[in-house]
UniProtKB/TrEMBL annotation:
One GO CC term on file: outer membrane-bounded periplasmic space
Region: Disordered, residue numbers: 227-248
Domain Tail specific protease: residue ranges: 218-489
Name of the protein this chain belongs to: Peptidase family S41
Domain of life according to the entry: Bacteria
Amino acid sequence: MKKIQNRLKNYSIILLAAALSSCTSIRRHNEQRATCIGPDELKEDVDYAYLKLQQMHPQLYWYISKPELDRKFDSLKGTIDEPLTPLQFYFKLQPVIADIREGHLALRIPRKKFTKRQIKSLEHKKGMFSRFEYYVKDDHLFIIQNKDSIENIKPGTEILSINKVPVSDYVKKYRELISSDGYNTTFQSYFLKDVFFNFYTAENGFKDTASIETLYNGEKHTYTLHRESKSKNDLDKDKELEKRTPEKKVNDYVASSNSYNRNFKFLDKDSTTAYIKVKSFSRDYSEKFYKETFAKIKNAGSKYLIIDVRNNYGGSLHEINNLYSYLAPEPYVLIKPSQLTSRITPLKTNYFRKSTPFQYAFKSLAYPTYVFAQTFSTYKKDGKVYYKMKADKPTKPNKDAFQGKVFVLINGGSFSASSIITAKLKYDKRAVLVGEETGGANDGTVAGFYSYQKLPHSKINLPIGLLLVQPNIDFLNTKKGVAPDITITESMQDIIDKKDPQLDWVKNEIAKEKALQ
């Protein structure tokens, strides 16, 4: 008993020390972020990053040969001839990482950290750029939705410059930081519209005003955007949105966007056609959602099902395996065995990462159990190391599995787990895919779980996916995304006019089939 009391006392001391050092840690991080690092140290960081990739990434040379990647890293080091800040170094190293063409593989941009007080202050203000929705076409950035009618800027307006810097310069610069899986051509524009201002604010900080020059219908205008303070009604509304009702839980409500990750409805009065929209395979309450949804579809006797995974960047393998069980006509295996570089790789996943002092203390107690479980989670076969996964075992169809015709809507924003399930559905001839080539590869990806490596001098984080996850199909080796059976594209004007040519095609096809019955 005395030993336990002493241990708890030690943990209390750790918690107190960690809390007291929090502000100091933030200050040191921001000082380090603004400090220039010498060329020799930066070159050591380049070598460190490449070494860790070679040690941990199970398919590093999938889309680029080793000699070519060696050359790129050597060439990069040749360009580092003066001191750079971590942010400047990031913009040099990340394009080389992007050339590996693994969509999950990217350095974390070195951002300024904020104290709790600063975060609270920002939470009491409205976003400046986040109150618009965007569309990227080539090197152009357009506003397609003005949520709060700011300055009465019309959808379809192009932003030409921000604080007199051409937006095309930013787009070109940021495009080099983003890679899809392989030689996919659709992913970048979808992803770039979502992360453009993440890059921009990392470079330029959170300002309270910004001047933008725009072009609409041939006329140029200059507007000054402001980071406005939220009213009491805004703050009360935020609190209300954050409340988790049973409906919000099952449909996985996201307060920041005031939307649901999962939606279900019937598209016609006789419930012939069911529609499921999944924005993210988050897993949260997903089992209950699919159980309730497919019970309703079965009870309604629906003959058609549309599953919409457009702009779904992926997520839980468990969720897509469960979803597939509601679509499969017979037992199936979703993925092939997932390969690792070594049996000790699962122990390199930064177990204590992002732990609060309280979590750190209790994780310490559980660490031996974690090590034991991970040690026995791998196996060796034919000279290769694999990780035990439920999704690579035979799974039976659910008792409420849908028996009718399935259509799946896809586009360049369908990535990772979205591509895994759509590749499997297409291979099994279980669905008709409609839309654009997916952003994720047809033949799988490297993700699963990550080892978060920190470059020794710049302190930039490099998350490295440790599992080669591939759908259980015969591979096409196209080095591209999942190709639709029916190619239907969506224009910017379609989005502005709230038209959906991809969904409309499916509805028309169903109407034709019903007319022949």
